[in-house]
Design goal:
The complex is a heterodimer of chains A (about 110) and B (about 110). With about 110 residues, chain A is an all-beta fold. Chain A has strands spanning about 5, 10-15, 20-25, 30-35, 45-50, 55, 65-70, 75-80, 85-95, 100, 105-110. In chain A, about 0% of the residues lie in helices and about 50% in strands. In chain A, about 40% of the residues are buried. Chain B is built from no helices and 10 strands. Chain B has strands at about 10-15, 20-25, 30-40, 45-50, 55-60, 60-65, 70-75, 85-95, 100, 105-110. In chain B, strands 1, 3, 4, 8, 9 and 10 form a 6-stranded mixed beta sheet that branches. In chain B, a hairpin with a 4-residue loop joins strand 6 and strand 7 (about 70-75). Chain B is globular and about 40 Å long. The chains are: A mainly beta (about 110), B mainly beta (about 110).
């Protein structure tokens, strides 16, 4: 069974640009979660989507947004990029029993 | 590979010894806890979980202990192997499916 996949693996942007990160969950998982893992810090919860709707969001500004498509894949959009947005962005998916399976992440570098 | 964090506490153990990794969680209302292992360049991988109505759970070579009185979680790894070298995160779940992660501990196994 294929795991959670994320694209791209690496993304380099400049300040003020927009970044779009993509995630495909494990087949059958309806929930997708996004986390930010900045260097030197732990994982910070960003967003939770389930059945196409945003269920919860972490303590991040509105320029972090996303959506979940009918096939349960998801996009994370970061507008007006700032240097401190440079981080590893992890996507996880889960079935209803709460165990989350993580993808390999997208490394975003903002110059 | 990816660097998970530069300032993580580090536990260094000899191959074959037992390892104990500790974590303090923040919310007394959390009802589900998970330990994740993150190897360089990869997303976090589920190791073991425990519900708040339990104080101990054992897996293969791993044991999780939960002390709700002091909001403390520990992961014990028996007969630590070089392949156990990674960063270990504890996570708590409350408010639905939102995971909140601890800062992580880097385990280094010396051959």
């Amino acid at each position: 069974e294929a795991g959670v996949t994320q694209s791209p693996t690496h993304l380099i942007k400049t300040r003020g640009q927009q970044a779009t990160l993509r995630c495909s969950p494990i087949s059958g998982h309806t929930s997708v979660y996004w986390y930010q893992q900045a260097l030197g810090l732990g994982l910070q919860f960003l967003l939770w989507y389930d059945e196409g709707e945003e269920r919860n969001r972490g303590n991040f500004p509105p320029r972090f947004s996303g959506r979940q498509f009918p096939n349960y894949s998801s996009e994370l959009n970061v507008n007006a990029l700032e240097l401190e947005d440079s981080a590893l962005y992890l996507c996880a998916s889960s079935p209803p029993n709460n165990e989350q399976f993580f993808g390999p992440g997208t490394r975003l570098t903002v110059l | 590979g990816e660097s998970v964090g530069l300032h993580l506490p580090t536990l260094s153990v000899q191959e074959g010894d037992n390892s104990i990794i500790n974590c303090a969680y923040s919310n007394s209302a959390s009802d589900y806890f998970i330990w994740y292992k993150q190897e360089s360049g990869k997303g976090p991988q589920f190791i073991i979980d425990i519900r708040s109505n339990m104080d101990k759970r054992q897996g293969q070579r791993v044991t999780v202990l939960l002390n709700k009185t002091v909001k403390h979680l520990s992961l014990q790894i028996a007969a630590t192997q070089p392949g156990d070298s990674a960063v270990y995160f504890c996570a708590e779940i409350y408010a639905g499916n939102m995971l909140t992660f601890g800062g992580g501990t880097r385990l280094m196994v010396k051959p």
